[in-house]
Specification:
The protein has 345 residues and is of the alpha/beta class. It is built from 6 helices and 16 strands. It folds into 2 domains: 149 residues, Spo0b-associated Gtp-binding Protein, Chain: A; 186 residues, P-loop containing nucleotide triphosphate hydrolases (Rossmann fold), CATH 3.40.50.300. The protein has a 6-stranded mixed sheet, sandwiched between helices.
Length: 345
């Protein structure tokens, strides 16, 4: 089951208590304090795992507590430290406490200690001095940290596929990658994001994310809402699909369909709305007349767009699209490198 948001409680282990003890040994006159320190409580640690794609397993538990440290013992024996609890989360998991972002685990194996264990208390042997050779003072262990946090998964992809429901995003993902999202001739077939890897040659690779379709009012919860847009916040490029609609052949409708999605993205995030974009007119196999295709293309160009005409189902026009995707990704990477070089100068 796909789960991309969950709230959990975490608690570090309490520290063990320090011990109050005195030794009595042969040849040791008058003995002395021998109470050992308590062990440290275990930590609760989040670790990014590249093999996970959902927070479902974590949702089943919700409460994670590390082991308590053992108490100190006589003869200056230190209590055993409590065992850590390691919680594996998918790459791209954002950890929040309220509105505060604690961590963004985006690299394989990256770790974050979300709840630290308490320090163990000191035994009475620690308090011996030249003037107090038989101290009776010892400390209790400190409690471990306790937090209520939220985990929000954001997929890590290079390209995000966006558009209205039934625009053909899943079909395009199938055509370009080995991913197998459900495809059907009705809206909202895609109910959760899907990832696929687009390859060109031996050295060009990009991860594509297919996002469930947006409708007008998605930012207010209409349709499936806009909660899945978090999965393309990390993308570098958007591919915006506008589908041919045989029920309404007015060219103005294509511009309105495009604007509907753009408005919902802008309402969700101005940063997301400012990302580079490739506009694609899909399902052109439904338009037999080449003149009609040119008229639609010319109209969209007048609106400032440079649409690519494709048919994902018939695999028509995909090569120019793939070339455009890698060209734009290369331009974006070059711009980022220049910005980094200027920042470091």
């Amino acid at each position: 089951m796909f789960v991309d948001y969950v709230e959990i409680s975490v608690k570090g282990g309490d520290g063990g208590n320090g011990c109050l003890a005195f030794r009595r040994e042969k040849y040791v006159p008058r003995g002395g304090p021998s109470g050992g320190d308590g062990g440290k409580g275990g930590d609760v640690i989040l670790e990014a795992d590249p093999h996970l794609v959902t927070l479902y397993d974590i949702q089943l538990h919700r409460h994670f507590a590390a082991e308590r440290g053992r108490n100190g013992e006589g003869n200056c024996r230190h209590g055993r430290n409590g065992a850590d609890v390691v919680v594996h989360v998918p790459l791209g998991t954002v950890v929040r406490e309220g509105e505060t972002v604690l961590a963004d685990l985006s690299r394989p194996g990256e770790r974050f200690v979300v709840a630290r264990g308490g320090r163990g208390g000191r035994g009475n042997a620690r308090f011996a001095t030249s003037t107090n050779r038989a101290p009776r003072r010892h400390e209790p262990g400190q409690p471990g940290e306790e937090r209520h946090i939220s985990l929000e998964m954001k997929m890590i992809a290079d390209v995000g596929l966006i558009g209205l429901p039934n625009a053909g995003k899943s079909t395009l993902l199938r055509a370009l990658t080995a991913a197998t999202p459900e495809v059907a001739p009705y809206p909202f077939t895609t109910k959760e994001p899907h990832l696929g890897v687009l390859e060109q040659g031996y050295d060009r690779r990009a991860v594509l994310a297919d996002i469930p379709g947006l409708i007008e009012g998605a930012h207010r919860g209409m349709g499936l809402g806009d909660r899945f847009l978090r999965h393309i916040e990390r993308t570098r490029l958007l591919v915006h699909l506008v589908a041919v609609n045989l029920e309404n052949q007015a060219v103005e409708q294509y511009w309105e369909d495009y604007q509907t999605v753009r408005r919902e993205i802008a309402a969700y995030s101005t940063t997301l709305a400012s990302k580079p974009e490739i506009v694609v007119l899909n399902k052109i196999d439904l338009i037999a007349s080449r003149k009609a295709r040119r008229d639609i293309e010319a109209f969209l160009q007048k609106q400032g767009l440079e649409p690519l005409l494709i048919s994902a189902r018939e695999r028509e026009g995909l090569s120019p699209l793939v070339e455009r995707i890698f060209q734009r990704l290369g331009e974006i990477a070059a711009a980022d490198n220049r910005a980094d070089a200027l920042a470091g100068a």
